[in-house]
Amino acid sequence: MKIAVVGKGGSGKTTTAAVLARTLARQGKDVVALDCDTNPNLGLSLGVGDLETERLLTLRDQLDDGEIDHAPSWDQILDTFGTNAPDGVRLGVITRIENPDPG
């Protein structure tokens, strides 16, 4: 199942995404939450904290600036640009996925 949360600024997208991700993970589902926002705060809403959220944002900025390379596979995307959040949610902070494996 894939769920996208979209809407205008200030409409509660980040909060809704965090609640959905943690609820599904608590039900035993494998959950990967991707924060693609220009102002990524999903890490804070999921409970990973300021420092880890900032670390992921810095990595994303380094990628956008060409300082680090894209990850060639889904697992490597999450290993490089992701972290473990509470309740078993895996969080990734990204701008885009280039040539993802179809799995």
Question: Could you explain how this protein is built, in words?
Answer:
The structure is a single chain. With 103 residues, the chain is an alpha+beta fold. It has a domain at 32-93. Helices cover 41% and strands 13% of the residues. It has helices at residues 13-26, 42-46, 50-64, 74-81, and strands spanning 31-35, 82-84, 89-93. Strands 1-3-2 form a 3-stranded mixed β-sheet. A hairpin with a 4-residue loop joins strand 2 (82-84) and strand 3 (89-93). The longest helix is centred in the middle third of the chain and has 15 residues, at 50-64.
Observed structural traits:
single chain; three-stranded mixed β-sheet; 13% strand; 103 residues
Order of strands across the biggest sheet? 1-3-2
Q: What's the Cα radius of gyration?
A: 13 Å
Question: If you average the pLDDT, what whole number results?
Answer: 89
Give the low-confidence spans.
Answer: none
